[in-house]
Amino acid sequence: MxxxxxxxxxxxxxxxxxxxxxxxxxxxxLAELSVLQLLTVAICTSxxxxxxxxxxxxxxxxxxxxxxxxxxxxxxxGAINPTLYYGVxxxxxxxxxxxxxxxxxxxxxxxxxxxxxxxLGQRLALRDWLAIAVGYLGVVIIATQGDPLGMxxxxxxxxxxxxxxxxxxxxxxxxxxxxxxxxxxxxxANFLCAIPIxxxxxxxxxxPLPTPGTGxxxxxxxxxxxxxxxxxxxxxxxxxxxxxxxxxxxxxxxPMLSLVFIATILHEPIHPATIVGLALILPGxxxxxxxxx
Length: 293
Description:
It contains 14 helices and no strands. Helices cover 79% and strands 0% of the residues. The chain is mostly helical. It has one domain.
């Protein structure tokens, strides 16, 4: 294995390991903070990480130029992601067991395939539709804890929010398919524009800023390692790899590892239906990665 591929593999594994801890961090933070408090702290922390990285690399001028060229675009994108997307996702985590929220959220890649049909005019083959159907059967099994005919859910609203955030995430990426801005610049611009939006929402809703404690520490962790540095690690891994699909497939480890952290740190018993549902969702993601869209 070449030095570049070894580096890509190490960076990719580091990113996957960090992402695997985030569902647990969400729950730890939400035990003490409201959704809006967690969202605001995480956005501010992530912005420090993303903008700080650009400053260290001597690219602050590029960021300012990017914002000056299209301020309206980045305000809109910042409102969608991170503000709306993570707001809806955190609300789902607040209502659902961590294992349900995180596994349902992994169906975003399947939603991406579906939405590419009306948005990009792409066509799906029969195998794509089968993978999508099997994937959403997995979602139903997870949401109903293995009783799809009974349709009893821990929180129907939580499931709706978890599915809703997959729509928001997929639409966000589809809207960015033709963007020529470097991903790290675009992401930093989005988060920078999201700070005043999140603070304004907190002000309107009367949400105070959180005080130091476990919840605040977990929120800072989420900002750095879900929204911030980890995206840069993952992008660096993909750039360094000569075989992008080999690194890309590492993402399949994340939901499995996440369940381990949920069980050991949160002491949340993993329901067999979660394993079965995830096993049905993953082929849909794999099909999309292989060019199903």
